[in-house]
Amino acid sequence: MEAQYDPKKVEDKIYRLWEESGFFNPDNLPDLKDGQKRTKPYCIIMPPPNANEALHLGHALMATLEDILIRYRRLRGDIALWLPGADHAGFETQVVFERKLEKQGKSRFQFDRETLYKMIWDYVEENKNVAQDQLKRLGASCDWSRSKFTLDPDIVKIVYQTFKKLYDDGLVYRGPRIINWCPKHQTGLSDLEVKYKDREDKLWYIKYPLVGELDKFIEVATTRPETMLGDSAVAVNPEDERYKNLVGKKVLLPLMNREITIVADEAVELKFGTGAVKVTPAHDATDFDIGQRHSLETISVIGQDDKMTAAAGADYAGLKVAEARKKIVEDLQSQGFLIKEEPYRHSVGVCYKCGRVIEPMVSEQWFVKIKPLAERAIEAVNKGEVKFISAKYEKIFQHWMGNIRDWNISRQIVWGIRIPVWYCIDKNCPSENYKKIKDNPALFKDKEDDCFGTVHHGEEGEPSVEHIIRRLNEGLTINESLKPFISVSGSLSNKPTCPDCNSNNVFQEKDTFDTWFSSGQWPFATLQTTKAGDFAKFYPTAVMETGWDILFFWVARMIMMGFYAAGKEPFKQVYLHGLIRDKDKQKMSKSKGNTVNPLAVVDENGADALRMALVFNAASDSDLPFSEDKVIAQKRFANKIWNAARFSISNLEDFDPQGFEPKFTAADEEILKELDATAKKITKDLDNFDFHEAAQSAYHFFWHSFCDKCIEDVKKRIKEPASEEDKKTAQFVLNKILLESLKLLHPFMPFITEEIYQQIPRHTKKALMVEEWPMG
RNA sequence: GCGCGCGUAGCUCAGCUGGUCAGAGCGUCUCGCUUACACCGAGAAGGCCCCUGGUUCGAGUCCAGGCGCGCGCACCA
């Protein structure tokens, strides 16, 4: 053995040894001592990294913590399965790809659906193995033979089945509802995908004249004057004495000269602005709700292209929102309706990816009726069926669950799982879908340039079904509510037939699922599609370990979907780790340039050092600052282990414990006792997810007890033995402590401990990774 | 607005159900190249555990209030 530990010479070799042993696959794990069988399944489903991205430090932390748990459980004799995967990460990936296109001066909208999908598929395929290789370099002991990709056909099928079940149970619906629209990405987003940013804005005070008393006005305040074109009421608080006598009266909407009513609604704050609100159900979430309560008309004046629609009136139609705002303020001013404007600071919703201001608008989307699912999840946590390791996150979870709103699961993007909904547009179908759309002017957009010649008109001067389908495939959006049907097995190449009329004149919903709708099903979808028997054996899984930042996005959805679709909780425990920050506690981000490539750290210091550094200071709940010092400290520790082992092994060559009865000294008794206590503590700490406590105990015992005291003591007794028996006893102790320490350290630092184990004379197992854990 | 959390050595943080809890790692200083390791060893300095009250025989540890900081959720136009 060399005087310095060189991870480069060890890590690849050891990982190969593990892979060749087959022990990553729980089916191949050896029996325990005395031929005892392993009985207890222990499963962790890995949060699948995005297929197109290299790992960052957060992934390294995830991999380290989960590998520690898995290796620990494997050593304890469980049937340990760590199931890896890769995530197509719908919107995330499409955004990354769009940026790539933008750099090349292109836009996603230049490509048709199939081409774009294929391009992203190829892009992802190119990078798909990167993350996997990197996880291996970190020492991840997952069962690669069970690895799944979120777009695997068998996974997609399960996602479809769940969707159908939700639909059949009335828990999923399509409807015009107010959604968060990102004008840049041209898709709706869920509430979670909207971030809020403070912004300096203006508040405009406008007067709306009362009908019949045109010299009287009601004053409203708004930050978005352009939406007034779509107003369908003015609302006041029912308790507001100032306006009580006005409720039910009509006002004349300036610029539009449309009569709208004054309604009373609880949602209006007495204190804010003038206490009277203009109500635009089509472009504001609160207003939408007010509109529902008072059966108000929904007038969409802003289109998905971020321009004013025809409903905004001839003066404004076609203007961009910002232009329209400017013109409207001017017009209000010149016509005497503008009272004043004042600076105003408030928070506005922005797209969490691009930061563009979200345009709330009414749109036909698919929603999950979430309350019933949420109630079961809340109950599960209350009853302890799912246990949060940290009380803090349990509170946050319950708070969110209790206030949850219906979940928009459709996205107007192509990268993802296409919603398995079909519409029959056969002329004779009882659904009458054809009738509902045949007069849609957008169908005839191409009439003028006549690119379809006569094809788009059938015999009676009506559009042919083929033409409609072609226009739809080109990206035409239909806003009519059509009658859908769901087909779990249908596909574009194998179109399903309409259940009402058996026709083949059907087209598929263009939207794809929110990625989290499918990843919410990941625990059971994976286990139902790996090996027969896996689901029965491993579900519910033991623990979900992931970052707190996806508590709502993912963990919450998995709990809800798990109960709903698989009948049981997806995992018994939830452990959420903190976010890695840089040494100044700043969030790591590419734009700040403070990211750390974990693989570069591994190259420099070894995987064990990185792992140990990540875990050593990691208090469970909070974010953790990362610095290279910490890694270097652990690199030194690795070297310490290496040298202690080097000393031990060179002094154990002539030692055979077989049949030897040691006669311990007081010092021997003490270190053995301490070993026991340390093993007990580490066991308890790992059972409680106190990784840092466990790591520090192992570190401290090895360095300051074993090295500083025990080895120094034993050294003398071996070099200058008082008696042959005492020398052998010293060797016995040395051998024992080294071996047990290696086991205790193995979950944290698997490479170096395995390498040393392999070099120990007469090691008994094929690998340290399947040794038996010292319980203390 | 509602909710969550944090303030302990220069830095990053541990201190679980109150009584060797005043700790660790890094950093700093002194002394040692001793035959496993200088990526080492021996030793040292450093803290009214944010403030103020309270509960208790006893409080970083529990309670209340205050100050400072961070975060999550949210339909104040």
How would you sum up this structure, described in words?
By secondary structure, the protein is α/β, with parallel strands linked by helices. The protein is built from 22 helices and 25 strands. A hairpin with a 2-residue loop joins strand 7 and strand 8. The structure holds one RNA strand of 77 nucleotides.
Overall pLDDT level: 90
Strand percent estimate: 15-25%
Category by helix and strand content: alpha/beta
The largest beta-sheet arranges its strands as: 6-5-14-16
User: What is the 3D shape?
Assistant: elongated
Major sheet size, sense and barrel closure: 4 strands, antiparallel
Our count of helices gives: 22
- How far the N terminus sits from the C terminus, by CA atoms, comes to 30 Å
Low-confidence stretches: 447-459
Number of strands: 25
Measured as a percent range, the helix fraction is 25-40%
Q: What is the radius of gyration computed over CA atoms, rounded to a whole number of angstroms?
A: 33 Å
